[in-house]
């Protein structure tokens, strides 16, 4: 079956005074059927977080323009994007008064394949016909407590340190980078990368069903509207990119 891609990127400032998320989807300049989606959630005070997140997008675009599968595997490429952005963010400390940090999710689509890497608590979900196939693990204290069985899912939702990250770009330690992928794309696959300003308000099942039932643009609007209502005036920046594999 021939397939095509339905994609959408969307953002909302939420109830913050500044948009510190950055998001982009762009095609490879010379390789048909190859595209990159990048999301970064900046942290570090006024303008510092936005600057850090912007560096993730710029480095991803720069590296992608020179990406050549013959000399670099997808996993190596994705890791290098995050590592390189981490170094640049650390260097900005010497030219600014901020202490910039950022999360990162980098997703690459090529004919028949999808690969991704991430650091922090921005997430990638992979659904197939509405069912969850994979979800990136958060590099956060609460996620570690959950994995060790020290707290429950219900306790995690209201934990006072639920936003405390154990790894991010720009920190003294090298970033923890987890990777994943799927070797055989098919119609019905759907991916969403999003910041915690979105995923904090949805169970996995609702995200998968929304992506399954609606086209990318409609689903993005539906999810942002629902997140804004559920935030009750206390919402974080929202950013999301949806990539759906549909019959041509």
UniProtKB/TrEMBL annotation:
It comes from the Bacteria. Pfam families: PP2C_2 (PF13672). Residues 4-245 form the PPM-type phosphatase domain. Signal peptide: none annotated. This is Protein phosphatase 2C domain-containing protein.
